[in-house]
Amino acid sequence: MSPRQIPIVLCRNCALYKTALVLGLESQEQETLDQVVVRNHPIEKGQILYRAGDPVRHLYLVHSGSCISYSGRDTRRVRGFHLPGEIVGIEDLGEAEHSHCAAALENGSLCQVDLTLLEEALGDEDLIRVQRYLLATAAGHARQLQVERAITGLPNAEQRIAAFLYNLGQRFQSHGLPALQYRLPMSREEMASYLGLAPETVIRLLKKLAARKLVRVRTRQVEILDPEALRALFA
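The structure assignment produced for this chain is given below.
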């Protein structure tokens, strides 16, 4: 994959495929999933997936591009980013309403899972297996959120930037994408909002890390040149 392209996750690295395996299905061409999933649905930058207070009915699996979430109803405060292969809305699983707002960060596509139809389409045993898998996925997402909260809570700005870049690469890698060379889906302003920093601070520290030859940053293209040294800044 060229680093200039918007990343696309392969189906085998997507949570939807893993759900199919939980169901005992080897192919995503199965009728059961077709009833409850809208696949590769195009999304446009800025398109709202759901708002705080909306009923929890769908899960959104990012196939290409990326999504962003905001705290509560405040679309100025960035809560997190969702990369290809990740599930948007999984943290609200089991709740009646969404606790935050989510939108497309850039043009791309996603697979949309209708939870209500899922309950109707599956037998009791299959439904229990899928629910257990989704709850385990939600727990994994909660652990990732703990890592991210630790990043935003680091004592100085350089540590936050270094940890953010390193962790982003690890998340890409977990879904079959390159860890050391990737495209930043967010703007400097969105990164700053997420990390609790000023945009000018983000820009200055990215240049500083580049000057130390830890990373190479060209617009939104990132190459981690020395991952161990970068990790040493915050570990």
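Interim note for the steering committee: The first strand starts at residue 37 and ends at 43. DSSP finds eight helices and eleven strands in the chain.
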